[in-house]
Design goal:
Keywords: Membrane, Repeat, TPR repeat, Transmembrane, Transmembrane helix. This is Tetratricopeptide repeat protein. By secondary structure, this protein is mostly helical. It folds into 4 domains: 65 residues, Serine Threonine Protein Phosphatase 5, Tetratricopeptide repeat; 116 residues, Alpha Horseshoe (Serine Threonine Protein Phosphatase 5, Tetratricopeptide repeat); 96 residues, Alpha Horseshoe (Serine Threonine Protein Phosphatase 5, Tetratricopeptide repeat); 76 residues. Helices cover 76% and strands 0% of the residues. It is elongated, with a radius of gyration of 31 Å.
Length: 437
């Protein structure tokens, strides 16, 4: 019989070659898992911050808010995400919310110096920028990587304070440091517009939209200016560009319809305006232009369909009552025709009286008289009101009544985005925050 192989003693604490391979594989898998977890913990949440910063550069604040609010609670920079939410609120004019969120970020351990700087920027943006003449350059020196936030707040602040030349100087300095940021061109355009340099303003708006085609505010400002200059075809093309990007924006569709009207494409204008008037009869210009076209074409049914619902909001309005009087006459409804015509004649008489009273009120610059004239223009004509509310605001800038009345006009013009900003300003003032733009 062959001898059995000698038994080899194996120490169980010493790994075999196979064991070493297994452990190497397990270690590699574990390292990969750790790497993936680290990437998920650090890199993936960072995308929200970067996307928000990109949206901020073209003042797309709602989009920026969505991105930063999607930052996960377990992310390593959750306190910075809260700081970013405060900054977005500040930049969009919501100063009360900005201070609340900045307080939360501070409580989570955010750098106190950063929070203090942002709170000072809230004041600067609110119109107090002239009170801090050296603060901008101190902040740029202290935080050069965050200079755009300081430039942004001070440019807006000087515009709000009625100092467009200073705002332009700041935006020009910003542009020389970072020519890729479209906001500097946009603010230079606003400053040029405020000083009457409309062609220069158009050039700046064009630069801003060339840098960022999705800069909707710059497109809109450019289109409005083109319309003022009588370049209606160019204005139409610009409004159409915005409408294709944001079909849900009521103010854009309304501006598109009004521009088509000016271009004598009135049937196209009416088709563009009908969805607005049907959805919200309080948006004055949409229903009014549809009624005007109905008077021109003899479409009594169209006038009644779109103008009658408006009377809940504008019962004493002269032009709308005239349109209804024409429609009722065409339908042979003598009683309703007589009532509408009487309301139209009363409004006309009041407007004649207002034209006489306005000379005296303007020469005296009496706040109560100016407000009374503005309210009557709103009731009887609608279109004359904003000019007189603005005059009243110039006499008493701290009084909220003209701002609240102009907010009503913004809502009735479909300018909901602008109205949100104005509403935040009013709320901020009511809570003791600075009054600004």
């Amino acid at each position: 019989m062959p001898k059995p192989a000698p038994r080899v003693h194996h120490d169980p604490t010493t790994p075999t070659k196979l064991d070493r391979k297994r452990w190497t594989f397990v270690a590699a898998v574990a390292s990969l898992i750790v790497l993936v977890v680290f990437a998920a913990w650090w890199l993936i949440p960072q995308r929200s911050i970067r996307a928000a910063e990109t949206a901020i550069r073209s003042r797309r604040f709602e989009e920026a808010t969505v991105h930063v609010e999607s930052y996960p609670w377990w992310g390593p920079q959750i306190k910075h995400a809260f700081f970013m939410r405060g900054r977005i609120a500040r930049m969009s004019g919501n100063w009360v919310e900005a201070n609340r969120l900045l307080g939360q970020a501070l409580g989570m351990g955010c750098d106190p110096a950063l929070i203090d700087r942002e709170r000072k920027l809230v004041l600067a943006q609110g119109g107090a920028a002239p009170q801090f003449p050296d603060l901008l350059y101190q902040y740029i020196s202290d935080a050069p990587d965050d200079a755009s936030a300081s430039f942004d707040a001070f440019a807006i602040g000087y515009l709000a304070a009625g100092m467009p030349e200073k705002a332009d100087q700041i935006a020009a300095r910003w542009q020389s440091i970072d020519p890729s940021d479209p906001r500097s061109s946009f603010y230079r355009g606003i400053a040029a517009q405020q000083t009457g340099k409309r062609e220069v303003a158009l050039d700046h708006f064009a630069q801003a939209t060339a840098l960022e085609p999705r800069f909707i505010e710059s497109h809109f400002a450019s289109a409005s200016l083109l319309k003022e200059l009588g370049r209606n075809q160019e204005a139409y093309e610009t409004y159409r560009t915005i409408h294709l990007q944001l079909p849900e924006r009521v103010d854009v569709r309304l501006a598109l319809g009004e521009t088509l009207w000016v271009l004598n494409r009135r049937d196209d204008a009416v088709e563009a305006l009908k969805p607005i008037a049907k959805a919200d009869p309080s948006i004055y210009r949409a229903g009014y232009l549809i009624g005007e076209q109905g008077v021109r074409t003899g479409d009594a049914e169209g006038i009644i369909e779109f103008v009658e619902p408006m009377m809940k909001h504008f019962p004493e309005n002269g032009p709308l009552n005239y349109q209804l009087a024409v429609a009722y006459a065409r339908q042979g409804d003598d009683k309703r025709h007589a009532n509408a015509m009487a309301a139209f004649m009363e409004a006309n008489g009041m407007l004649d009286l207002l034209r006489f009273q306005s000379f005296a009120a303007e020469s005296r610059m009496d706040f109560a008289q100016l407000m009374d004239i503005a309210e009557k223009y709103y009731r009887y004509q609608w279109q004359g009101g904003p000019e007189w509310y603005a005059k009243a605001m110039a006499v008493n800038p701290g009084h909220l009544a003209p701002r609240q009345a102009l907010l009503r006009y913004m809502l009735q013009s479909g300018a909901f985005e602008q109205a949100k900003v104005e509403q935040r300003i009013i709320e901020s003032v009511l809570q003791g925050q600075p009054l600004g733009g």
